[in-house]
């Protein structure tokens, strides 16, 4: 289901930023969507850490093929060698195992997190091994569907900003932060369209 705020966000961003106006017009009829599965979203985010979208999709596909479905119980029952054979690093195997244990123990209570602000959710998620700010931000965007998340460490976002706003040269972090201020309170939506400019197929975590 499309977020309730999506049309309002697109209208506001298109009026404020010609780059985003062009991207929004270029990709009609699609939007951010949630898979509605806490473990799936966090697991897929861990798989995608520090690698390209294409590489992450490949690893995830192998996990699905090997496990049947990427579920916490199946991850815990799979051996290290099996998970490594799917293309995961030893560190990511450890991270997925810890996440799966949290899920099986009932510690991933997203319904409670819905009542918290972004910083509180990020702080809670970062107590889980292998989850840092970027992974928590992907959860905010793709599971909780928060409208104003700006993942400053996201490789794709930084690449798209360089492409569209600075002649393919990377802007300093402070300048990127300042650019994003103009997109409040819809920075998640701006980020989503900038991702689209690099990969027309929507990413789903």
Structure characterization notes:
The structure is a single chain. The protein has 205 residues and is an all-alpha fold. The protein folds into two domains: 6-33 and 149-198, Endonuclease Iii, domain 2 (Orthogonal Bundle), CATH 1.10.1670.40; 38-142, Endonuclease III, domain 1. The protein has 13 helices and no strands. The model has no long low-confidence stretch (mean pLDDT 93).
Keywords:
205 residues, mainly alpha, Endonuclease Iii, domain 2, Endonuclease III, domain 1, 0% strand, globular
**Which percent range describes the beta-strand content?**
under 5%
Helix content: 55-70%
**Globular, elongated, flat, extended or rod-shaped: what is the shape?**
globular
- The SS-based structural class is mainly alpha
Uncertain regions: pLDDT < 50 for 5+ in a row?
none
Q: Structurally, how many domains make up the residues?
A: 2
Largest sheet: none
Number of strands: 0
CATH superfamily of the largest domain: Hypothetical protein, domain 2
* CATH architecture name of the largest domain: Orthogonal Bundle
CATH topology of the largest domain: Endonuclease III, domain 1
Secondary-structure element order, N to C = HHHHHHHHHHHHH
Alpha plus pi helix count:
13
The radius of gyration is 17 Å
CATH level-1 class of the largest domain: Mainly Alpha
Mean pLDDT reading: 93
User: Distance between the terminal alpha carbons, to the nearest Å?
Assistant: 14 Å
